[in-house]
Amino acid sequence: MAWSIVERDFVAETSPKTVQTLASLRQFIQFGMVGGSGVIVNLTVVYICKKFAEVVFALNEREVFLPLLGTDFNIRWYNVFTVVAFVIANIWNYQLNRSWTFKGVSSVGWIRGLVPFMITGIGALVVSQIVLVLLMNPGSPIALSESVFDDSTGLRTKFYWASALSILVSMPVNFVINKFWTFRKSPKGSRVVLDSPIS
């Protein structure tokens, strides 16, 4: 992590525990900024998917994509759009976190680091999908009001608001898991190098 002159002077006069706390706070703020840009990427992809489906295929995001066999439940197009947006935004977030928030912390390769990041994200995606369905389903106790979110304008589009709210639910949990798993420091210890094969 690069430090400015003011930060170096402050660090010289501060306890190691305070420095560690401030470094974690700085990481959290950077993670939040990356997450904020990821929300913009996510919502942009949601918007593009929705408009593309409307214009090219005359599809509404609430239409059924795939019925879940043996149940009254369905996967809807809005679920598909948010999964596509999730994948693109998570790759965006991973690269920014790797090169900025947690720069120099992880020594694993790009793909090897992406796998736990995406697995962590999948947990957040599941929670996000549950929240999204609850906000979109008119029979849900937390459904967004049809009278307010009547899809008459972009700002009153229920799907956009449900997407944004479902994204915001997972940020703090996502930070903690990524900090301590995806971007954890390599364990300290001695490394054994063999000069000849073990027989």
Describe the structure.
The chain has helices at residues 5-12, 16-57, 77-101, 110-136, 158-169, 171-182; strands at 64-67, 74-76. It is mostly helical. The chain has one domain (14-182). β1 (64-67) and β2 form a beta hairpin. The longest helix is centred in the N-terminal third of the chain and has 42 residues, at 16-57.
Number of domains: 1
Largest sheet: 2 strands, antiparallel
Topology order in helix (H) and strand (E) letters: HHEEHHHH
Low-confidence stretches: none
Task: Name its key features.
199 residues, mainly alpha, two-stranded antiparallel sheet, 6 helices, 2 strands, elongated
Short synopsis of the structure:
This protein has 199 residues and is mainly alpha-helical. It is built from six helices and two strands.
Outline the fold blueprint.
Blueprint: H1 5-12, H2 16-57, E1 64-67, E2 74-76, H3 77-101, H4 110-136, H5 158-169, H6 171-182
Antiparallel strand pairs: 1-2
Helix pairs in contact: 2-3, 2-5, 3-4, 4-5, 4-6
